[in-house]
Amino acid sequence: MTVADIDELRGRSDVLGIDALLSAEERATRDRVRAFVDEHIRPNIADWFASAHFPVEISREFGRLGVLGMHLKGYGCPGRSAVEYGLAALELEAGDSGLRTFVSVQGSLAMSSIHRWGSEEQKQQWLPGMAAGEIIGSFGLTEPTAGSDPSSMKTYARRDGDDWILTGAKRWIGLAPIAQLTVVWAQTDDGIRGFIVPTDSPGYEAITLEPKLSMRASIQAELHFDDIRLPASAMLPGAKGLRGPFSALNEARYGIIWGVLGAARDSYEAALRYSLERTQFDKPIAGFQLTQQKLVDMVLEIQKGALLALHTGRLKDAGTLDPVQISVGKLNNTREAIKIAREARTILGGNGVLIEHSPIRHAANLESVRTYEGTDEVHTLILGQHLTGIGAFR
């Protein structure tokens, strides 16, 4: 099937004309990232996924593409709109969730923490290199025994003269084995504080978590901090309490609202192309009622999810987005994307379990996306508390 054919089918799937709601600049950003994915990711992702390989060199390519810290202003950051960042996340995840996650960990978690809460010296020191992809950052919040409840973290930083001594562990920390710095959140006598920890610090250990059946073209690790000595200048001066890490989590959750739509769209398009080319009982399987119902159901959810993402993005650009609205998008779009990837796989039949076909890869990746940055259960309880006024976390 030619590129023109694919574009024509994609146009048909925009039943509500959502493309017309985007500005010319937003469409240009989307198309630029889509072209990058088509050229650099699609030809390689099946092999990267199969071999559990993350192409570290893509970091600088992402920097040149302008998607690292995309929504941040100054310090070499692109300074694009929330909607443009969302569209970029969608196109990247149409290639692979793990590669979109790299952009999220780097930009929405590590860079956002430094940009919002760091000192001027910290911003100047780290952000330009991170925006260019020359410096890789990670974000250490989750612990082996503290996932959904970060307030119970055990990692601790104590004062020792003018220095800090960091002890503890973190788990499921993206990019840590290849990063030059990790933003680590730790308990102190003065509450939870954030620290920029160079990964070559004595006492810092990153253990890659493998083998994984999800997010295989990505890297996650368990971190151990054995009395790491940090100068006073390592602390993020503006962040105190959980407000610091939660502000970064909300940035990442926002990107997920868009990103998972890319995985859903790519799964749908793979199923549509296959159904038009696969002949059974003397006609393409796209001509059978059950197949058409599956395709229609997928498009309905993708279109509704796109409207939700776009509305959320417009609110974010206007400065009026509430965190509970982010929970709506993360919960709904991730949940529906998993259903779409699984249903798309059924249209491919037995061939759908081969790694060359994207729906089963997306379905596996989305299990991780569904879990990180707040599980379904956490976002359900956030919304439940909003609706009833009663917290159900404890």
UniProtKB/TrEMBL annotation:
It comes from the Bacteria. Keywords: FAD, Flavoprotein, Oxidoreductase, Transit peptide. Its EC number is 1.3.8.6. It holds the Pfam family Acyl-CoA_dh_M. It catalyses: glutaryl-CoA + oxidized [electron-transfer flavoprotein] + 2 H(+) = (2E)-butenoyl-CoA + reduced [electron-transfer flavoprotein] + CO2. Residues 138-227 form the Acyl-CoA oxidase/dehydrogenase middle domain. Its cofactor is FAD. Pathway: Amino-acid metabolism; lysine degradation; Amino-acid metabolism; tryptophan metabolism. Residues 23-134 form the Acyl-CoA dehydrogenase/oxidase N-terminal domain. InterPro entries: Acyl-CoA_DH_CS, Acyl-CoA_Oxase/DH_mid-dom, Acyl-CoA_Oxase/DH_mid-dom_sf, AcylCo_DH-like_C, AcylCo_DH/oxidase_C, AcylCoA_DH/ox_N, AcylCoA_DH/ox_N_sf, AcylCoA_DH/oxidase_NM_dom_sf. Residues 240-387 form the Acyl-CoA dehydrogenase/oxidase C-terminal domain. Belongs to the acyl-CoA dehydrogenase family. PANTHER family: GLUTARYL-COA DEHYDROGENASE, MITOCHONDRIAL. This is glutaryl-CoA dehydrogenase (ETF). The lineage of its organism: Bacteria, Bacillati, Actinomycetota, Actinomycetes, Micrococcales.
